[in-house]
Structure formats: structure tokens, C-alpha cells
Amino acid sequence: MTESPYKNIVVTGGAGFIGSNFVHYVYNNFPDVHITVLDKLTYAGNKANIASILGDRVELVVGDIADADIVDQVAAKADAIVHYAAESHNDNSLKSQDEFIQTNFIGTYTLIQAARKYDLRFHHVSTDEVYGDLPYREDLPGHGEGEGEKFTDKTPYNPSSPYSSTKAASDLIVRAWVRSFGLKATISNCSNNYGPYQHIEKFIPRQITNILSGIKPKLYGDGKNVRDWIHTEDHSSGVWTILTKGKLGETYLIGADGEKNNKEVLEQILTEMGQASDAYDRVTDRAGHDLRYAIDNTKLRTELGWEPKHTDFESGLKATIDWYRENEDWWKAEKEAVEAKYAETQKVL
Ligand code: NAD
Ligand code: DAU
């Protein structure tokens, strides 16, 4: 155990998938830190994700990051804000955009104004999707996964979806506040996370819970889209490393060299769950669907000494499948509604 330079941390979105993992990470590793989770508990937030550690060291404030009064109240008692709260799903952002602008942009604006007022350390959690997508080349082995161009912190912003454009907008105001007002901020842009507690609207948990519910998994388009998978615990250790060792004003990309195309991941899930590897439906592709994401993590590794621990995707995926199998109470009640929403627009090809 090492001592933390920050003793009172606000974690926005700390009841969501990645934010709650970070709250557990800090709780388990830094006993001198008090954590205030500020979370609106939207459909994606779940008090159960942190219920086991709520108490003296972890407090939940249910509220909106775009509400300046509540943000002021929690900021006044903090020395750092780690900002995860967001509307996070691309497919939802294609159906309705208001919440994305409100939470991802206005919410971030509200937080950085409070961080300025109280001179707090601010870490902004963002996504690799702000860079748009990369080409892949059919002529490279494995359809080019792991090869070719990767995102770095110098890649120009080129977001494709309402979700990623609002994340990009939030990154840009954080950068401007650093330059114009000396905001003590860092930014991280991470690739696709997997692990327990991920909402079942997302690719991996959707397919696992489909199989557990007797529904055929759903693959968008031809399944050749590549995502760079990282276990959420490695994302948490990356954010902690940047918060405590990162240089103010800098952007760090977090990724664990986990490129795989969607078809390959789905076939792995099916095989692991004892199904035929082709027992899935191909469905209407996502509008504007990004082709490939890939992170160059050199800066985080070499400048800050970070290393991912969960580098075996197969065993991480197996543990994730086991978690959803063993925690039906956590997801079962929502399953029908999530699939009904998808069925409104997605047709089997
Ligand atoms: P999630 O959707 O699982 O959780 C989001 C959390 O934010 C929920 O607890 C929700 O209740 C809360 N929230 C939403 N709007 C709020 C508001 N207005 N005020 C307060 N709380 C609010 O998201 P996630 O997948 O855990 O992503 C967390 C962050 O990490 C996001 O900023 C996302 O952009 C970023 N990110 C996600 C991934 C990924 O693969 N999921 C990868 C890179 C970056
Ligand atoms: O790259 C980081 C981003 O990763 C984060 O910023 C987002 O918050 C997070 O949701 C994730 O975005 P994606 O759009 O990549 O994730 P999603 O789980 O929605 O989809 C992963 C891939 O799987 C994508 O290519 C679309 C495809 N897909 C998705 C679903 C839900 C399917 O083929 N079938 C599905 O049912």
C-alpha cells in the first residue's frame, strides 16, 4: 500500500460500470482516501455496484453533474475530482441526443467550473472514440488487427457519433480550461472495457445474457469491426496512475493491446458457453459504425510506468461470463426491456 496524495476524492459516475470498478480499486488499495460518489443513478447506474463498501470511507450522493448547487456542495469538501459520469452508449445516442449534450458537455462544464473555484485536481475520463476510426487492411494477416496505425495523443479529433462528439467536446473544454485558467487537469482516452458489472446493452454482456436467456446473439453487419479490449481493472489502475503521477495538462491513452474483431469475440463467447460458433443472428449495422480502434499506449507505459495485468483476454472473458451466469439477479429484470428497445430498430439480416 502507498499513501495517496489525495484524501477526499469525488468520483462522478461511480455507480456505473467503470466508475464503480475505480471506487473499489481505490477503496481496496488506499485506505487513507475518502470517496464521494456523485451519481444520478440513471438506467446505467446501480447502487448495488458499490453497496458492499458504502460507509465511513465511501459515500453516495445521488445527484446530477449538471446541477451546479450539488456539484458545489461536493466539490467544497474535496481535493480531487475523477470524472466518469456520462451517457455512454453509441446506439442510444443515435436515437436521442439531449441527454448526451446535457450530461457529457454541460455536466463536464459544471464540474470544471467547480474544480476551478476550489482549485481541485481534475481527471477527465474520456474515450478513444474521440479520434474517429482507423482503417484496417484485408491484406494484412488477421485482417490487420494489431497492425497498422494506432491512436496517440497527437491524433486529430474526428468523432463519428453523437456520443463520441459530445465526449470530444468535453475533452476540448477541459483542455481550454487548462490553458486559459490553469485548471489542474489531465485527460485519459481509453479503449473498449470489459468485465463484470457492465450494462447489458453493451456488446459482450448483451451476447452473454442473450445466450443465458435462450436468445440468439446479435452481430452488427459483417462483424469485422475491430475493438481494442481492456479489462476494466486495468483501466482503473491506469486512471489512478495518471491522477497521481501524470503531468498536468497532458492526455494519456489507456489500452492493453487487445485488438479483436467482433465476430471473433462473439465466436469465443459462444464456444466458451458450449454453443456452436455460428449460432448467432446478423442484424442491421449501426449507422456510422466505426471500423477499427487501436491504442498506442507507449506514453503511459514509458512516462508513468503503467502496465496492464489482465493481458489474457480468454481468461478475462471466461471470468466475465461466469460473473453474469452467477449474478442473474443483477441483470435479469432489465433484459426484456433492453432487447425490446433494440428490436424497434434492429432487423435480423
Ligand atoms: P455507464 O453508462 O456504465 O455508467 C455511467 C454512470 O454515470 C452511471 O452510473 C450513471 O448513473 C452516471 N450518470 C449518467 N449521467 C449522469 C449525470 N448527469 N450526473 C451524474 N451521474 C450520471 O458508463 P461506463 O461504461 O462505466 O463509462 C464511464 C466513463 O468511461 C464514461 O465517461 C465513458 O465515456 C468512459 N469510457 C467508457 C469506455 C467503455 O468501454 N465503456 C471506454 C472508454 C471510456
Ligand atoms: O472505445 C471506447 C468505447 O467503447 C466507449 O467510449 C463507449 O462508452 C463504449 O460503449 C464502447 O463503445 P462501442 O460502441 O465500441 O461498444 P459497444 O459495446 O456498443 O459495441 C462494441 C462493438 O460491438 C461495436 O463494433 C458494435 C458491436 N455490437 C454491439 C452490440 C451492442 C454488435 O455487433 N452487436 C451488439 O449487440
TrEMBL record:
Keywords assigned by UniProt, alphabetized: Lyase, NAD
Keyword NAD: yes
GO BP term (any one): nucleotide-sugar metabolic process
NAD(P)-binding domain segment(s): 11-319
Example GO molecular function: dTDP-glucose 4,6-dehydratase activity
Alphabetized InterPro entries for the sequence: dTDP_Gluc_deHydtase, NAD(P)-bd_dom, NAD(P)-bd_dom_sf
Low complexity: compositionally biased ranges: 156-165
Catalytic activity as recorded in UniProt: dTDP-alpha-D-glucose = dTDP-4-dehydro-6-deoxy-alpha-D-glucose + H2O
Cofactor: NAD(+)
Broad enzyme group: lyase
Pfam families, per the entry: GDP_Man_Dehyd
Ranges where the record places region Disordered: 138-165
Compositional bias (Basic and acidic residues): 138-153
EC number: 4.2.1.46
Family label: Belongs to the NAD(P)-dependent epimerase/dehydratase family. dTDP-glucose dehydratase subfamily.
Protein name per Swiss-Prot or TrEMBL: dTDP-glucose 4,6-dehydratase
Gene that this polypeptide is encoded by: rfbB
